[in-house]
Automatic annotation (TrEMBL):
Gene3D superfamilies: 3.30.300.30, N-terminal domain of ligase-like. One of its GO terms (cellular component) is endoplasmic reticulum membrane. It comes from Oreochromis aureus (Israeli tilapia). The gene is LOC116332670. It is a multi-pass membrane protein. It catalyses: a very long-chain fatty acid + ATP + CoA = a very long-chain fatty acyl-CoA + AMP + diphosphate; tetracosanoate + ATP + CoA = tetracosanoyl-CoA + AMP + diphosphate; a long-chain fatty acid + ATP + CoA = a long-chain fatty acyl-CoA + AMP + diphosphate. This is long-chain-fatty-acid--CoA ligase.
Length: 613
């Protein structure tokens, strides 16, 4: 009611006519309030996304739910298969209500049947990254407290590597195969095929509430071991409602190429259930087959992350580029230049860029189609969903505080740390079995004694028109020559150089120097060599002196996560020593106006201070 009162007052004052985005701003806030009320209603009635799925099984049993390769699974068939999964677990006697089962497999329909089957018997799924191995695999298992592991047959070698540790911890291990000859590993497909497909009694999940775990989703681990974020059943609803908030309707068909173990991949399916629509699932993203899939399945909505859009724009142009039915793209991380190229080439597809974190309590949506923006900063949004962009000390890696000990908001155009208030309506649950990391994400006494905010770890800036933009991740931004260097911005500039395909920018310690010197690990475009003179000229033209990478490393490929996030830990640790690195290394040689080879002699001169950087 308060929101409406304020809106009416502003309209009466003429604000509506001075700001063309005002109506959109109000509609966005009201839509978020509607989502919050719906989730609260679900919490009161204990109505989960599974309940919605079972309704659809009754009302539209023959409607396609999943398209995968040449197979089509209807809502009824998905129900039957997930029933068989649930009964296979129960008959094996290894899973009881409230348990957690770790799922270790790539994108395939079985992933969904397993998760739905677990929810039907009141259990949660720990969604393991199918690329992790050894220490990381054991770490993620321990985080979740899983008592059972189900792994894809092609991941058997990864399981065998840690099998003695799994046996020590008394974890039951299943492989998605008809038979398995390895001691201590049971097959699962045969058990599932022999199980009944009868509906699962609701009593088996009667203990569940909307605060019960539905899944554990792991952070990408770009700067360390992954952390397990607890996803409750109410959180599943909040994530699922992104699709209708972005304009997805009940007639759409949505395409998902992102890993199901990640929130961005899974929310497509739970969101599709909310809408009652089909999902086209692909085992792995393919730029060359992306549009062929969209045409084959009559896709109308695609989901993206920024790198996907860039990969699509880098494919050879075809006459059929605009021959498709895609009308809407939902995702995050698209750069303004890629956005512009994408719509120019593939047609006037409406792009809905959103911002949010798996474990976070806040979200933004670019409902204005402002290229490059995450959303808008408005007093209505801030009033109903309290947040702030505050001054941040890059060197100390902590917020700046005034003489009273409170944080200060940034000025327009100045990058700062996004923080969001933690309340009963906007909770931060934290990381499972990791109290230390959970506490690190909390900020106390931000604007007054006793308040509590979530530290997003993201640096954002707000322009004069109140549009919000991503600047960099905390820890990625580093300080050099008394200036803050945003790695994301430098990487974007480097990627515009003719010979550079991708860039991973980071800071490295140099003895005797304050801060960290910029370094970039880059890959080259097919068929091109590193044009050192041209790259030097490029960074000189487009980057201030302090932001120009002092060192350049040429790699065959960059280390990335399953969702294409660059992994910096390894390259930062390796530094720029040519005695330890076999990749070609170059040094920013300002005297010769070139990137020249970083030989052991040059390295020694930099370390000793004979060469000034």
């Amino acid at each position: 009611m308060l929101v409406w009162t304020v809106c009416v007052a502003l309209i009466a004052c003429g604000v509506l006519f001075r700001h063309s985005s005002f109506l959109q701003d109000v509609q966005f806030v009201l839509a978020k309030i509607k989502v919050r009320r719906f989730v609260l209603k679900c919490m009161r009635t204990n109505y989960s996304i599974l309940d919605r799925f079972l309704e659809l099984v009754e009302t539209q049993p023959h409607k396609p739910f999943v398209y995968f390769k040449d197979e089509t699974f209807t809502y009824r068939e998905a129900d039957v298969l997930s029933n068989k999964v649930a009964r296979a677990f129960l008959q094996a006697g290894c899973v009881k209500e409230g348990d957690t089962v770790a799922l270790f497999l790539g994108n395939q329909p079985m992933f969904l049947w397993l998760w739905l089957g677990l929810v039907k018997i009141g259990c949660a799924g720990a969604l393991l990254n199918s690329n992790i191995r050894s220490k990381s695999l054991l770490h993620c298992l321990n985080c979740s407290g899983a008592t059972t592991l189900v792994a894809a047959e092609e991941l058997l070698d990864a399981v065998k590597e840690v099998l003695p540790h799994l046996h020590e911890q008394q974890i039951t291990v299943f492989i998605l195969a008809d038979r398995c000859e390895i001691t201590g590993v049971e097959s699962f497909i045969d058990k599932m095929n022999q199980a009944s497909s009868e509906p699962i009694p609701k009593e088996l999940r009667s203990h569940l509430t909307m605060q019960s775990p539905a899944a554990y989703i792991y952070t990408s681990g770009t700067t360390g071991l992954p952390k397990a974020a607890l996803i409750t059943h109410s959180r599943v609803w909040t994530m699922s409602l992104l699709l209708p908030s972005s304009g997805v309707n009940s007639k759409d068909v949505i395409y998902d190429t992102l890993p199901l173990y990640h929130s961005t991949g899974l929310l497509v399916f739970t969101g599709a259930i909310e809408r009652g629509i089909p999902v086209v699932l692909r085992s792995k993203f393919s730029a060359s087959q992306f549009w062929d899939d969209c045409r084959k399945y009559n896709v109308t909505v695609i989901q993206y992350i920024g790198e996907i859009m860039r990969y699509l724009c880098n494919t050879p142009q075809k006459l059929s580029d605009k021959n498709h039915k895609v009308r809407l793209a939902i995702g995050n991380g698209i750069r303004a230049d890629v956005w512009r190229d994408f719509v120019r080439r593939f047609g006037e597809i409406q792009i809905r860029e959103f911002y949010g974190a798996t474990e976070g309590n806040f979200a933004l949506l670019n409902y204005s189609s402002k290229m490059g923006a995450l959303g808008r900063h408005t007093f209505l949004h801030k009033m109903c969903f309290p947040y702030a962009v505050i001054k941040y000390d890059i060197d100390k890696e902590e917020p700046l505080r005034d003489s009273s000990g409170f944080c200060m908001e940034v000025d327009k155009g100045e990058p700062g740390l996004l923080v969001t208030e933690i309340t009963a309506k906007a909770p931060f649950i934290g990381y499972v079995r990791d109290l230390n990391q959970t506490e690190k994400k909390k900020l106390h006494n931000v604007f007054k004694e006793g308040d509590l905010y979530f530290n997003t770890g993201d640096l954002l800036r707000i322009d004069e028109d109140n549009f919000m933009y991503f600047h960099d991740r905390v820890g990625d931004t580093f300080r050099w020559k008394g200036e803050n260097v945003a790695t994301a911005e430098v990487a974007d500039i480097l990627a515009l150089a003719d010979c550079v395909k991708e860039a991973n920018v980071y800071g490295v310690k140099v003895p005797g120097q304050e801060g960290r010197a910029g370094m970039a690990a880059v890959t080259l475009r097919d068929g091109l060599k590193f044009d050192s003179t041209a790259v030097f000229k490029h960074v000189e033209d487009f980057l201030p002196s302090y932001a120009r990478p002092r060192f350049m490393r040429i790699q065959e490929s960059l280390d990335i996560t399953g969702t294409f996030k660059l992994i910096k830990t390894k390259v930062v640790e390796q530094g720029f020593n040519p005695n330890d690195i076999t990749d070609p290394l170059y040094f920013l040689n300002e005297k010769e106006k070139n990137y020249t080879p970083l030989t052991p002699d040059v390295f020694d001169s930099v370390i000793s201070g004979d060469i000034k950087i």
